[in-house]
Design goal:
Length: 551
Amino acid sequence: MPYLNSTSRLPYRTLYDITGVLPGIYRHVKGSPPSQPTPTAHGSAILYRYFWRGWELMAEDRIYFDVVVVGAGNAALCAALSARDQGVSVAVLEKAPPAEQGGNCPFTGGGFRFVHEGIDDIRRFVPDLTDEEVARMQMAPYTAGDFRQHLTTVTQGDVDAQLMEALIVESRPTVEWMHAKGVRWELSGRVSGAAGVPSVIPNAVGLNAWQAGPGLVRMLTATARRAGVVFLYETEMVRLIRGSSGIDGVEARDKNETYEIGCGAAVLACGGFEANAAMRVEHIGPGWEHAKVRGSRHNTGDGHRAAIDLGAQAFGQWTGCHATPIDIDAPAVGDLQVTDQMPRRSYTLGITVNVDGNRFVDEGEGFAEQTFVKMGQAILEQPKSIAHQIFDSRALPHIEARYGGSKRVQAETMRGLAAELGADPDALTRTVDSFNAEAHEDEYKPRNLDGLSTETLGPPKSNWAIRLDAPPFTAFTVTGGITYTYGGLRIDRDGRVLGSNERPISGLYAAGEIVGGIFYHNSLRAAGLMHGSVFGRAAGAHAGAAVRGQA
């Protein structure tokens, strides 16, 4: 347990952060702390003055914060700021070091899907837009009905209705609240400067955080520090501590020791379990131990286990996740320098075969942005969790530019390509011959669902079924990369975690990827950050009010 009179037990960064919230920290210390001296310009005189007076936490006493937030990404930071709005002391426990803070948020494009009335409405969030620029733009409104339809469709109707309605209703107010907290925005689809502004802006994802996911974490963290939130880095939650009236602490572990932190409420916003191979196999299935992690290596299901151990209700699609085809040489865990270059989503224009040379999925079911999650999952279920995307010379010019960094195999014949790939030449040749027998002679139109499909082939190819017969043939070897998991904890619209009896567990909240019930079967672009912010804000507000006895 850290003693506050020992600079060797708490780093200077932590000491600096704690300044200003000593009354909360000392709540459980015997007696009363001395009067606070006037802080110096560096803000640390309070702490050092306490040290020299001999104040310390006794062995049987715990550091105390009104609200402890586990995690330090988008949802967690929104929860921390919202709790501070209630006037309570807040600590953020971040498992990662500062350079890796934020869970999966830094790996995102920073997009937010929310209800708005079009460009004249949304421009207030982008103050550098001029009247001349706005006059050249078109952006349709994005209505509550649009949001509801899109989320219902992508989840095949399985989304939790109450959570969906809370997300939709609170999406716009939450963006406004984040804007007031110092989050800077840019138009989604805006390239740069006046010359780069497209005339038509997509309405579904109206805004991106400035400098994408990394920028969002930086902006929210800076605001939280100014608000007095304490950050404890490289500190993981071991378990939740439940008292007679609810959650009253967490057991934490840093690089040196394990200790308890007392609290009035805890908000779990520490991501999914995608970086835990054992949990992936247990819940998603065999083959998922091979999945490469596209995001944070720190999202290992700590919050799931801790909450369920206390009786929290598991909820949502625990067998589901967001995945995508990625380059076989992608790093095993997310790397901000290269992660965005690793997806391989031009599979719609060719065929995809497993290591046995057989097709196993409809590559042309829809546009790649609608099917890449399903494709990534399907690849991981194949032998060795590997597949080969094959194109001919007509398709190759249309594939994404980021394939340029991939290793490729090229040959004049399918048998030669199979030999280079280490596949069965007879099997691959049969697969391609069967496909070509039902495919069409036509030109690729990648931006249109062309309806060129196979008739009896299993599996079918529903669009872009164009003959693969123009050498040379090129193959890219891919695997599946997992981004985040869908299964989690059940919450109400205030972010309160529900037990198996459907009643809230007093003092326990959750937000972000740890929440179940939002995504099933597939995800909706830019709704992930939005629901993290909505329920993070709700959880922090309710937790802070509850600690003050006002909820």
